[in-house]
Design goal:
single chain, mainly alpha, Four Helix Bundle (Hemerythrin (Met), subunit A), 5 helices
Amino acid sequence: MLKHVPNILTVIRLLLIPFIVFFILTGHYILAFIFFTISGITDIADGFIARKFNLISNFGKLMDPLADKLTQIATIASLVFTDIIPIWILLIVFLKEFIMICGASFLYGKDVVVYSKWYRKISNCFTIFCYCYFSFIKTI
């Protein structure tokens, strides 16, 4: 059962995306932040558990970064839609993620599984910071 915990946490993170989007679009920024924070905690937990107990799977290697990308893009798109941030930020993030997905897909076709690196976590932290900053500004 323990071997499935990291993958279950990744799936939970995917299931949290609609709630984050809904709460941003309806102006409930604190609830959106709470769900976004839960998503971040599950991201940290699944990576820690997978590495600590050697439960790394190909599913996790592919779905964990995908869950992060979908969470980031959905959150930023919601913030653009509510006029909290400008659209160019979404376009840059989307282009970066699209290029990374294309590269990973190409390498996966060559039997190379690309997994997340430490600098992806910096990108996630930057997204969280931006979300907090712009939501705080909007709330004021």
